[in-house]
Amino acid sequence: MVLFFIPQDGIRKVGFTATKKVGNAVKRNRAKRRMRAMFYEFSNSLKDGTYIFVAKVGLFETSHEKLHNDFKKILSRTKAITA
After folding, report:
1. Is 10 part of a structural domain of the chain?
2. DSSP character for 81?
3. What is the pTM (predicted TM-score) of this model?
């Protein structure tokens, strides 16, 4: 997964996208649902700004623990997480 983050005070926007490279419509929608669930799990500790998450191939097949760790790593890399 890829994250584009633009810090903005007082504004929190989020977008989730998956290209056809990820798979058919069912796989793309599942990948977006999983990213959305991870975002809401971390939403209390995130900075204000615009977040754009892009799904990569295999996102819908990874385990919850690996996805959680990868999500936390990508947020800390972009300095979008406060904790």
Report:
1. yes
2. B
3. 0.87
